[in-house]
Design brief:
Blueprint lengths: L1 E8 L3 H10 L1 E4 L2 E7 L1 H14 L6 E7 L7 E7 L4 E5 L2 E5 L11
Antiparallel strand pairs: 1-3, 1-4, 2-3, 4-5, 6-7
Amino acid sequence: MSMTVVVTRNASDRIRGFLASSMLEVGPGVYTGSSLSAAVRDRIWGVLEAWFPPTDSSIVMVWTDKKVPGGQSVKTLGVPPIDLVELDGIVLARRSIPDEKPEGE
């Protein structure tokens, strides 16, 4: 069992209520579980996937995982899309930068 953290952005009240019933909300949209088993973590993620709306919201779950580079695993739902990339044994989050128009165009 390890510490699990879930961070939400623009999540529905249903999702926020569910997370608050199973984890401690330590800040707006930030939930922690100090000793969730892998089975409980997977069940929570299954509910989040089933209830996740295709809107401008996102959910990130992070937990300690000694079997992966960097020692933590990450799951994401929603926007912004993030690519997880291993570089020299460290997992980095990469996202594309939108094209900017020069001023005056």
